[in-house]
Fold each of these.
Amino acid sequence: ARAEILYPAPARLPEGGMESIGYSSDVVFPLEISAENPDQPMRLVIDVEFGVCKDICMPVSGTLSVTLPGANEEHGPLIAAHLARVPLAAKPGDAAIKDVRVVRKKDRRMLVIAASFPTVDGSGDLFLDDPEGGPAPLTRRLDQTGGRFEADLGPPGDWARLNGKKLRATLVSSQGQCWTLITLPAQ
């Protein structure tokens, strides 16, 4: 059997003049499970590590286990509701990345991304993550329309680990969410 954690679209969480990325209330991380025999009960054991934050962040870790019944239609609507919050690969008509470039600002390199969203309400936002699990730079909006973003890539020594790397860009708006891969320009 195989299990993959699916992540709902995040939000910006301003706190004390700083921002983090996460979820402001209850969140469900759906698991996509491939079982050898989906009609039979299966025991699932998962080790988890996460942070719970309010005024400070507390790391939490533990092992969760549950016996899952075989395939069950009863929970289909609930599962579908949580899956609807998970970004899917972008398709025509979804939000899209229009341009990715690196510019120098003094001794730092900045990633500048232009995006388009299928809404004009200014709700567009963009988040980066490393599909391989490494750290990714935090974006910030450059305008109120939600179409331009920048991320600090740091000084040249920091840039080296990101040079030419693929990052997942998650685009979120009031009309939904999607993701696409971008390749950071080689410098």
Note: The two ends are 42 Å apart (CA to CA).
Amino acid sequence: WTAACTRLAVSAHRLQSGCLVRAMELLLRADSRLSGDSAAVALRSAAESILNCLTAQLGNLGAAVVTLTLRFMAVARVEEQTYLDMLLARLLVLLRHERASFSEPLLAAIACALGTLHEQGVSAKRAASGASAAANRRCMENLGEQLVAALDSMGEEEIARVGGPFVVAFLDDAQRRALLQRAAALRVGL
């Protein structure tokens, strides 16, 4: 897998967007088989190459691909704040204009990925610029509102997947209480 990641890092620029998405899916599945520092470095390098290639196509990415990309960033431990800022800007547009495309599992996956990234030091609370900071804040407000609106439809798995790091870092007190009440009603731990 290390060799495959290294080759992908070098040749990602040759791939079409569909192939880049497929590469992320495959690497997410292979993550459990990647062990050791050299594998982690190779995975991060491949991830950064893929993210670099996807930035040109950011306006065409839908909710599912943005979610996949956030998950991929978290698993690969990408440390570049700019990638997160760009994805959050796209996520904000999608949350405002395509609300129906965000199912409960998708919302939970986004929250989980953002919580994991926050713990790793790449956070929606930070930004590469002032404009990004404002956009990140609006995105997180919209995401929190949509997540709370979907709580009654969320099952045990989705509530558990949201995760404590996201709840603590990004939800306001009222949102946090609503989520914790739903978790308690379902008898789910975070």
Note: The longest helix spans residues 130-149.
Amino acid sequence: MRGDFGGRLDAIDQRITGMTNTFTAFERKLSEARQEVADNTARIDQAETRIATTETAQEETATALKTAMKRIAQLVTKTEDLENRARRKNLRIFGIREVTEGSRPLLEFVTEMIPTWLGLPPQKTFTLERVHRTLATGKPGQNRAVLVCFLKFQDKEFVYREARKQQITHDGQKITFVQDFSAETVRVRKGFQQIIQKFIAINAFHGFKYNPCQLRILHNSKIHLFSTPREAEKFYGHLSLTAEDPGEE
């Protein structure tokens, strides 16, 4: 009987030993898992720190970029203004054939012809500083524009106003006088061409404002300025609705 009891004790002891080994292995695995969690937590903390640092840097970069873009826009506007101011005494003349002036200097020819084209008295003269054709290469059958720089701004304005009142021709060619603007100003103005025709039809077009270039519309004795064709179209649509329903305003 003692042998039976001893055998049962040995079996129990073995089971306890096995359970102890199992618990030891479990504790080791648990310890490893805890260490892995701790390592991952540290890595997550590091990642969050790096992300926060990156986000801060991005915010600072975005702020700096916004400031730079604003400054660039200001410089572009200022440059456009300076360029247009430098051109304020200039006019471009279209329609003069390339060889019309003959052997005479172009400045002499244009100085002589402006009063004639405008139907002014012979004693009415204008002093021109420079006259030359634009630098673009001439194309077959197409005449380059003639750039005219007046000594006095008032003379340039007078000639431009008088030229707009008349149909000028020379040797059967239509002669047109236009203002000399920067390429960007010309681009902006062209964008308004379609809506301008609508405002002209209702006698509301009032030219353009300079620096920045904006469309001027006269309505109810008040000048309205528009920076984009879309803004002008929206305003015109409002006028059309008002005209259809006079009681709206």
Note: The two ends are 117 Å apart (CA to CA).
Amino acid sequence: MLALASAGFDFWAVRLRHSQYDTYTFDLGLLVQVTWNNLHGQWFQTTILPFNYLAEHVTPSLVVTAPVFLVWPSAEALLALQSIAIGLAGFGIYWSAQKRTGDVASGLLLQIAFSVAPATGWVVRDEFHPIALAMPALTLGTALLWRGRLALAAIVVGAGLLANEDAALLAAPFGLLIAWLGRGWGRLWGFGLTVGSVALLAGYFLVVVPTLRPAELGEQLPHPDLRQFIECGTNTMEVVSCLVDPGKTIARGTTAGDREAVVSLIGPTLGLGLLGPSFLVAIPRWLVLLLGLDPPLIHAHYVALLVTAAYLATAEGLSWLRRVPGFPRLGAVAVAVASVYAFVAGSPLPGGGAYRPPATAVQGRVEAIDRAVALVPADADVSVAATSSILPHVALRSNVQLPVNLWCQAPDFQVVDLRDGYPTTTPVLRRYMAQAADDPAYQTLFNEADLLVLQRIKLGGETSRNDLFSGALRLTGANVLARGDQLGVHLVWRKEAPVSRNYHYFIHLLGSDQPPGSDQPPGSDQPPGSDQAIYSQSDGEVRAGVFSLADWDPNCPMEFGVTLSAPNRSEWSRYHLEIGWYDLDTGDRLRLTDGADHVNLSLP
């Protein structure tokens, strides 16, 4: 019952965050999409990262958990599974403590202490991460170990390796503990677990990652396990040379942030979390935490197995003092009181000292976001671009991505909170989306409270083109159409050669019945005083300059569009469009193969 109550509270707390749009693309949205794709045979595929998710983490658990979407197709399903796993981990601590201390009350007190510990709260709050699914494997396996069920203990902890590769850092030393305590076949089970854990790590980093992770990422985006040591370097050799340097290692492991990490994780156990074999099992993970980033990432899922091991070690520490009458229970009471105090002082969950209500809830925009999200069809074949806090709510589909993106295929819907600029800035996002909304290929379904929903529409009457500028940028298609009392222009390009400069496009509407003007386009061959005056125009960078032309994949079409002011429809026959590219610094235009500096398009 206690485990069920704990799981219920945890799920309520994290669901509250999620319902208030306080969960994000990284990592809930990403993991929801990967899990959904696994359910549909698209193994570990994602459109949020530029590579297969296995290049980021090895997570068989996302295959095992995928069927939950058959009965509960929502990100909340994964949040519920994680809450259940943490509650079950608490039961494992009770079961282990009850065996070690011989006292049911001590076991219950330590289960309560673990459930309210701030570190446990940070794991709960940090959305969904597969490593949390390894927490019950560690606690139940430890309880089985102390009951002499060595083979079963090895199997249960080995199942924790399904979570992700981080679990191997505890599974390997746990196998050594089994081997040390066991005899005969029990010892072999322990060695088998250790060898299997090391083999998993070696195979993953030596085979899977080099095969699936694009080499061009290199030092720009190291593997996340390597990024833990980013202050040492960006490649394996730099990190290893840093860690084997005694001076650097001592300095890195004794920072103020490291001391805070130890106090926050061990403090609520009153130091008893250092006194059991489970602390020794966790030493490799402790080293990664303390020798990695400074300050350590203790307010996140990275402490999932450390807080679990700390309370297992507390139960083991209390067991050493069983000869002192009443001490295990008194010690358990003290640890429970200390953990409750720590919860009040620093837990991020509701009621805790570090709890903060979601920012969007304070701004009173949740109802508007709900209405915006409801406009997106549930059809998994509909592609969606969404800002970070909205994306987890629309991630159960094969194609979902952040809006500021170099997509190869334009999304069917764009659902954007203009106050959520991640991973860029809010001004950049606003500029980017203003250009997107100007494209006649999209219609605006919702524009309220800084929320924007765009739906891609099918444009008829596309004209095929084959106009190559400077051997690099080829216009392959154009739509020119009425957009109310304005003129919509949608263009499709392909990059056929590397582009070294970020050229600006120009789209000019000219007419012979306008007064002569001196406002000539950059680099124009048209002399002042010509009767071809510009009626309206759009000049600028593709994708609002967020990406350069050099970033575009030559295998993908480059689509964009603009809406121009236009004269009365009855006068359109006297107007035409001029389209091309120019260098902003020099004003020089790119040339076509026939020497012209623009293409002409007639109006419909």
Note: The first strand starts at residue 384 and ends at 386.
